[in-house]
UniProtKB/TrEMBL annotation:
It holds the Pfam family HhH-GPD. Keywords: 4Fe-4S, DNA damage, DNA repair, DNA-binding, Endonuclease, Glycosidase, Hydrolase, Iron, Iron-sulfur, Lyase, Metal-binding, Nuclease. HAMAP family: Nth (MF_00942). Residues 115-134 form the Helix-hairpin-helix DNA-binding motif class domain. It comes from the Archaea. Its EC number is 4.2.99.18. One of its GO terms (biological process) is base-excision repair, AP site formation. Gene3D superfamilies: Helix-hairpin-Helix base-excision DNA repair enzymes (C-terminal), Hypothetical protein, domain 2. [4Fe-4S] cluster binds at residues 194, 201, 204, 210. DNA repair enzyme that has both DNA N-glycosylase activity and AP-lyase activity. The DNA N-glycosylase activity releases various damaged pyrimidines from DNA by cleaving the N-glycosidic bond, leaving an AP (apurinic/apyrimidinic) site. The AP-lyase activity cleaves the phosphodiester bond 3' to the AP site by a beta-elimination, leaving a 3'-terminal unsaturated sugar and a product with a terminal 5'-phosphate. Binds 1 [4Fe-4S] cluster. This is Endonuclease III.
Amino acid sequence: MGTPRETRAEQAEEIVSRLEEAYPDSTISLRYTNRLELLIAVILSAQCTDERVNTETEHLFEKYDGPEAYANVPEEELAEDLNSITYYNSKAGYITESCQQILEDHDGEVPDTMEELTELPGVGRKTANVVLQHGHDVVEGIVVDTHVQRLSRRLGLTEEERPEKIEQELMEIVPEGYWQQFTHLCIDHGRAICAARSAECDECVLADICPSEKGDSEVDLASGDPW
């Protein structure tokens, strides 16, 4: 079992420092060319891999250009275009309704505030944070996806389980200048080393400060289950 730094703030700073060195090119992996494509890609990425989303959006973004195209296409046709994406029927509905709302309430432009974005169908705080950060260069929170949720608990940064609560605690301890990058670093490390079912603690640059490290710890703090 690793020994965390004395305070959670010190732990967070050390985690960021080490992961930055390990993943110097860490950034968003979804592919897009404008704010609407970003919004659609993030909606599609819920409970689906970015790799799968990128494969599907390659042809999707060629077929549909602008909110009018998505707002006017029959929902069944859009769903068929997305049929390899998890929950594609629901996501097709979210995209159609969001684009209709963008046209009616926002002059065809993707909104640039948390309040307006989260009023769009299928858009919660996590999705809104991604769109604000990468579409509008507005950083007012931390994106808490499954990797951030898992690593934050394993590394002793929070004991909360709900993403909204985790975000609030992380915003208190992660330096504000790293709010955006923290997510990308956690995603890269979660994919490469600290996966949900197969944490490779022997290869982890954080093992010596991780209270979930499998060498001595009997419990995965992310799930509360024994290793």
